[in-house]
Every structure is written in structure tokens, then in C-alpha cells.
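Hi X.,

You mentioned you wanted examples for the new student's onboarding notes, showing what a folding record looks like when two proteins sit in one file. Here is a clean example. The first protein comes first, with its sequence line followed by its C-alpha cells.
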Amino acid sequence: MARTRSAKATRGKSSLQNERSDPDLDLISNLPVDAYNAILMCLPLRDAVRTSILSRKWRYRWASIPHLVFDGIKRCAIDLADIVNGVLLVHNGPVHKFVCSYYVKAPYHLDQWILFLSKNGIKQLTLGFLQHSYRVHSRLFSCQAPSDLHLTGCKINPPPAFEGFRGLRNLYLQRVCIANDELERLILKCPLLETLTLKNCYSRLIHFVINALNLRHLCLSGEFKDLQITNSPLLITAAIDLTRNIYGAEHLEQGGVCNLIKILGSLHHIEKLELQGYLLEFFSMGNVPDVLPTSFLHLKNLSMGICFNDRKVVLTALCMLRSSPNLEMLEFSVCGYGILEFQVIPNAGFWEAQEHLGCLLNHLRTVKMTGIMGDECELCFIRFLLANAPVLETMSTGKIVKKSRFLKDMLQLRRASTQAIIICD
């Protein structure tokens, strides 16, 4: 019996020594496929390729990872297109994520990549710094699975038979050339779209309509003559920045319903709103009401660019404040001098009239100001805020150009809040 046990122990020890001495048997060579992919997707693509030297079982594991990100590759003598082509040539299995934001000279490389990705279940696609003359291959619009699409610097022309991206949730277009009606059709045919970003797209967006039932986050920057947001009841954050040169005085129409109501009147569930640049100037066209027909009851964070030398712009800003009874944070920056043809500088009588109308800033706690020049019209607005914010905690001014007299006057203003602190840079 003792000999039997000793023999078994000897064989077990010998077997264990053989396993340890076998270079092909280690702790990472027999992992499940999902584990391999999870490890490789945590590495930059270049390091993932280098795992081929670990063992024979790791030699081509990287060739099946579903995420291909080329942004971390440094430019060298070898052209980036050759690197991407080499990876795609040996890749097997689906590609769910593909990122390449470098400038690629030859359009036919891009066409080949899109053809390859469209057949391999692409879900997240980022192509950037392309030639502006490059027209995205029509095969892209036959994909049914994408959830995220980021395109920069190219032309988009969806074919007439385009049925939409039924699973698309995030759409990002920057410096993209696309016709107005085609962009509207693209957005409309993405029923699950939640995040839309349009930055400096090369298109004459006249009477541009955003119709997205499930839209929750919107970011617009560029040239727009007219804008309408319809059928987006779930929108909770919006950042809009319109450049001024597209709507000079010749485009502005006086009278009638103001642009503020036309564009923002239906955003009943908005929680965070950024109105940058000269957007308030655009919103002020028409008859600005004292308060909007429907208040922004959920709005907590508001950012605006204000021209204090234009009476209509100031009225528009005050209308926004009166229509936001639950506002907690206000940020505003001073910009420009308004459109001279319609500019009327607010006077003392103007501000007295605003005080009589009242303002519901009962929840405002933080005010941040930038670009303050130190003019009297800015001081009047600050006086209005301090007098109508009973729970205000902090008001910060940033750098003030003409600060000596302005600071003294501002610190002497009456405050509705006993705990309000004014922080000056």
C-alpha cells in the first residue's frame, strides 16, 4: 500500500513538472474567446498585434478582435492606408467598431474600407479628416446595424432608396457637405436617434427642421438662416451656436411671432440649455413677449451670450429668465454690439419697467459672468439679478476690463439673498 501511494505521488509530481516545462501550457493560452477579446480590446491596436509573440495560440488572436481603433498609431514612413489595409486583409470575424481620424489621401482606400465594414456588422464608425471632395460611398447607407456614426470633412449624399439607420442612436457630423433636404431626411429616418451633433456643416440650411421623436441631446454650431425643432418631446440638453454672418439685417423680419417661440417654444422638458454667440439676437426678431406661453419648468442650467447694448436682446434674455421658474444656474457672456439698424440701448426707465413685471428666480443659486466690460448696462442687469434671487449663493464675474469704479458700484448693490457672495477675478 505504501509503495502504491509513493508511486502515485511520484507520477503526479513528474506529470506536474512536465506541464510546467511545456512552453505551450500556461495560464493565458486556453482562455475563452470572449476573454481574449476583452484583453485585446483594452490594448492599443499596435500592442494587440504584438501579443502574437506570446505563444502559438496567441499568434493570430488579434486578427479577430471586433474593435479596430487606428487613432493611437504614430505616423511613420509607412502610409496609414497601408497599415489599415494590412489589418483588414488578415482580419476575420465581425468588426463592430472602426475608428480612423487621420487624413487619408486616396479616396479608393476609403471606399474599400466602407465596403469591407458594411459586410462585417459595423456598429460604431468614425472617419475623420477626410478630403472635402470625398463623397462617402453609397454602400454605407445600406448598413442596418450602426448605432454610432461620426463623420468629419466629407460629402454625404444618401441614395433615393435609403431606408434609414433603424438602430442609429448617435450622429455626429462636422464640416460635412450635405443638402438641406437630405440632412432632414437622414435625421427623420433614424427613429431611435438620441444624440445629434452638427458642427459647421457646408450647407445652406434654410428653414432647417429637426424632427426626431427620441432626441435627448442636441448640439448645433454653424450657419443657419432659420431653425425649427419639432416633435422632440424628450430633448433634455441643447447647445446651439449660430454664426452671425448668415443672418445679417436683410434677413431679419420684424413683427409677428418671435423666433424664440418658434424655435424653443416646444422644448417643455429641456433641463440644460446653451445659447451661445449671437443666438439671442436671432431669437429677438419679432414681438418678444414678457414671458413664453409655456414655461421651461424643468430647466435648471441656462447659458447665454448677451449683447447689453441692444434692448431687444436684453428683453429676450429677460423673457428666458421669467420663463424658467426653477432655474438654478445661470451663465452668460457679453458679446458684440448688436445689429445697428435695430439697436436701442436700455435706459433707467427700461429697467424700472422690468422690476414691475417681476421675475421668478426663487431657485437661482449660481451666476457666472464672462466678458464683462464694466459698462452701466451690465451693472443694471447684475442689479436686476441680485434683487430677484433670494437664495443666490455665488456670483462670479471673471475678468473685468474697466473694473475700478464698476467693482465698487457692484459691491454696493442690494441683494435679496443674505448669503450671496460676489467673487471677482
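Then the second protein repeats the pattern, sequence line and then C-alpha cells:
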Amino acid sequence: MGKKAEKGTPKWLANKMKSKGLQKLRWYCQMCQKQCRDENGFKCHTMSESHQRNLIMFADNPGKFMGEFSKEFYDGYMDILRRQYGTKRVLANKVYQDYIADKTHVHMNATRWVTLTGFVKFLGKAGHCIVDETEKGWFITWIDRNPDTLAKQERRDKKKRMDKDDEEKLMEFVEKQVERGKVDEEEAEPERKEFVRADEEEKISLQLKLAPKPSISAVPIPKLIKTEAKDDDDTKSIRSTKSCRPDSWKRKFSGLEEAMQEDMAMKKRKIKEERPRSPVSDREEEDDTWLMEDIVVKITTKALGEKYHKQKAIITKVKEGQAYVEVISTGHKLKLGEDHLQTVIPQPGKPVLILKGDYRGKKATLEEVLVDRFKAVLTFKSKDKYVSKEFPYEHFSKLAS
């Protein structure tokens, strides 16, 4: 083999251009983690001393190496599924294509799974994902088992159960009112008898008692009664008394309206009783979303076209879980949800804003990016002293200014 080209020479640059991107899988050695460009190079590599030494190590303990490769493949695949797609239903092959885009990834032929279908079935049996097969292929949905997420879901389910119980009580009350109304109608209705005529020559006369029509003058007209009263300073003040409507003018409510009014009063009492025992703070409502003003985000949705895809924007306003953003490159203003946006990680030394957790809303400085763990070290001021902590990428974003 010839001498290795020095860095910066045309030969070195040509080799770099040839090795850019993914290469053929059949010329890749997973044990040595070496990618060859052609068959001759791969043959030379298999005859090398280092490759033979690695094969001997693999033959001594194959289960150990297979387990390590399988774990690295599983961790990389699940990290992409969790970070990019969350709990959305997505095609398994699409996630796999995103995973192999990194040329240093662990190849599947080095793991204990022969095919992607076998790996997807393993995720379903182990309970890591919800798996279903369609004509288009295998679809997977990541199951979020974070304790905070489970606690929030439990609170939502409890609230739904309470609302359902209130609705059932209201329906039972309405049914009782309807049955009571039917019974009252049956009791008020007079017994009907068959008309039997004793004498056919007797004339029939009907005596109808109609209520007299009220005359206009009979309706009481409200008047303003002015009275003069003397105060201690002998000053006169005029007071007017409001006339009250007669009882015949009051509108009578039906059974359904009375039931609705009682239900509303019962809900108000329940809210007042439960408020001191189970308060819902504004902090919990804020934690449901990571959107905050004056941060830089990246647009991830393709629904707006390639013009805005992967463009950076600044959040100018957050309202009802929606972000009003301004695209930096074009200045266009859009309204997007948090599922269509992604946080932006600046260079070390730049200011960022913490979006989740106990330090939400604090400004910090990015010290170091931990690429292997998808985290970064942030330094911020807490209780009159500077603290350095690790945060995941999705818990902070670059500040606009």
C-alpha cells in the first residue's frame, strides 16, 4: 500500500470527497469500524494483522460484541424516534433512514436482528412501542414512560372521570324530573267517561266558563313616588322607590332549565370546595408547553412548503399553546404549534433560555455540548451563585438577542 496522503494536498482532498456520505455496506467492517471504498481495499483490509486480531477477539466472546452492537443500534434508533417524532405514529423505515444517515452508525447486520421487521416486532413485544402493520409497511408509536408525563395524564383522566360523573348525575336528575312531570300530568287529567244520552229528545247545552279578558286599565302601571326627607342639616333629598312587577309577570322555568341551574350551582360549589385542597398552579400549566418569547426556533413542518422548511425564526408571542413567529431570512410572520418547531443549539459561549423544569425562564450561557448524550452544560445564576448543570437539547434554546 502506498504512503498516506498528507493533509491539505490534492490527493488528501480527493480521498475526502470520495469518502463523503454513505458507502457500500458490503465493504464495511463493523469489528474494525472501517469503511472501504472498493473491493480491492476491503480485501487488503481483511488480510491485515489488525483485522485478524479483532476476529480472534470476536471468536473468543461473540455474545459480548453482539450484545454491545445491538445495544448501540437500539439506543441510536430510539433516540431518533423519541427526539424527532415523539409519540406520533410514524413509518419504521423512515426512522431507520434517518438513523443510517450518519455514516458512523452501527449496521444492522452486526446486531442480533436480521431484518428491520424483526427489530420492530421486538419493540412491540418488549413494550417499548405500539406496533401495527399496514399495506405501506410497519408503523410504530413511541410510548412515553416519563413520570412527569404519566402524572399529567393521570390528572387529565381524573378530571374527565369527574366531568363524566357530573354528566351522569345531571342525566339522572333530568330523567327523574321527566318521570315526575308525567305522573303529575296523569294525576291532573280528569277521568274520561263515555257519554250516554238518557233521552234522545233532550237538547244538549254546553256551559263554557271562559276567563274574562284583562283590560288595559287593569294592568298596574308602576309609578315613581317622590318623598321628601329632611336630614340633620335641613337639606332636602328626593328619593325614588322602584316599582316591583306583579307575580303574574314572572316567567316560570321548565324542569330541564331548573335541572341545568341546579347543576351549574353544584359545579360552582364543588370548585370552591376543591380549590384549597387541590390547587392547580400556573407553573403546571406553563410546563405543558416549552414555547417562550424571544427565543430562536427551527421550523420542522413541511406543510408550508420547502420555502419555510428548516428555516430559523424568532417567537414574538405565545398564546393558547400557539407560537407567533417571524422568519429571520424573509421576515414573514407565521402561527405554528410546538409540534412544528424545534429548539436551536447555539455555539458555546452564547446565551440561551431554559424552557423546562425548575429553572424555566432563566437565562444561561452554553458552556459545552455533549454530543454523545444529546445534552449540554449550561451555566446560570441561582441564589446569588453560578451553577453549572446538564440539560437535554429540548430543554433550552438560543436567545434572540
